[in-house]
Amino acid sequence: MSASGLDKNTRRNSGPPTSAVIAGLGTCLPSKEIHNASLVGELDTSDEWIRTRTGIESRRRADPAVSVIDLACEAAGNALRSAGVATVDGLIFATTTPERPCPAGAPEIAARIGQGNIPAFDVSAVCSGFLYALATAGSLITAGIADNVLVVAAETYSRIVDPADRSTAILFGDGAGAVVLRSGPPDEPGALLAYDLGSDGTGAHLIRIPGAREQATGERWFAMSGRKVYLQAIDGMAQSTLRVLKDCGWSAETLDQLVPHQANARIMEALAKRLDLPPERVVCELARTGNTAAASIPLALADAAAAGRLRPGHRTVLTTFGGGITWASAGLIWPKLTAVTSEI
Ligand code: UT7
Question: Which atom of ligand 1 is found nearest the CA of 169?
């Protein structure tokens, strides 16, 4: 994929005078931790290979009784508590691993967390799902359709990766994250200052989950051309980040924290080098969660904030790349908030 291809297919929004502001952050992880050592017995791999090639030490696996909607409801409730609000005007749910193709999960999440009859729908943009949903929710707010919106991302990849495929079974984990967005002035910390969203459907074959027709012919599991995605992800996130930096009026030198999709520590290291950022200004928090697809950015935000790496006032860019192919980035000044986290 060429640089010009990425540029040509991208839509941007620098933000009208009223902004959408991140006001609360919540997460939920399954309590069951699967260490590399326990995969070594099942696959032709080693703890050393997984650590050095991915940075992952363990990942979470949801109990069979826990659904992706259970994880989403926990994270959403935590985000509401973090924001100190009881109700929202809308809910958007990003997932690659829905409970079923129909109906969408969002209305059920809204009902279960006591939000009544608000508009609620799912977004399908794989690892870019959280940022696509964030931009959509932000647009509902800046268009005056909603005053506050919950954006929830949850995944149960442990149910769709082939347990015998060593290139994917070691990478992915289950988890959920959510934010509350509300209307506010653009100069308020937490205001989304710029977005960059794009896609390239010619890469649709690179990350796939079989549909009903393929399943009928025996194809069952998630599949990824890891190496190709690896190389495109570095390029795609670097270019998308640069576009958001430009729209925010920032430079890489003045950026405090880059929060990339948590797919592979080596991708994040290469991204840091490409953008000339020192490692301490790129959040890498996947060691104990693995790649949680759409949920990875809110989970990383909560971990980085808890560790004191991400602090109020930090110039922050969120960036992601994944199936579709899709990519997305957003820029904001990190607000003063306390993430609420739980395990299930
Ligand atoms: O979330 C959506 C976006 N996803 C991503 O961004 C993920 C992108 N891809 C990756 O993270 C990496 O490509 C992988 C972790 C999937 C693979 O790492 P890699 O350094 O790109 O390895 P590779 O695919 O080039 O494979 C190198 C070797 C191969 O063996 P041969 O052909 O050289 O003999 C693989 O079969 O490593 C082998 N290999 C493994 N060996 C031990 C692949 N997986 C494993 C494993 N343990 N788990």
Answer: 48
Compute how many other C-beta atoms are within 10 angstroms of the C-beta atom of residue 143.
10
Condensed to tens digits (0 to 9), the pLDDT of residues 107-133 reads 999 999 999 999 999 999 999 999 999
Average pLDDT estimate for 277-298 = 98
- 320 and 223, same structural domain? yes
73 is known as an active-site residue: no
Ligand 1 centre distance from Cα of residue 59 (Å)? 17
Last residue of a domain, one of 146, 164, 184: 184
Does the beta carbon of 34 sit less than 6 angstroms from any atom of ligand 1? no
Q: Which residues have a Cβ under 8 Å from the Cβ of 28 and sit 6 or more positions away?
A: 71, 74, 75, 78, 154, 175, 176, 177, 341, 342, 343, 344
For the question of whether the overall pTM of this predicted structure is more than 0.90, the answer is yes
**32 and 168, same domain (yes or no):** yes
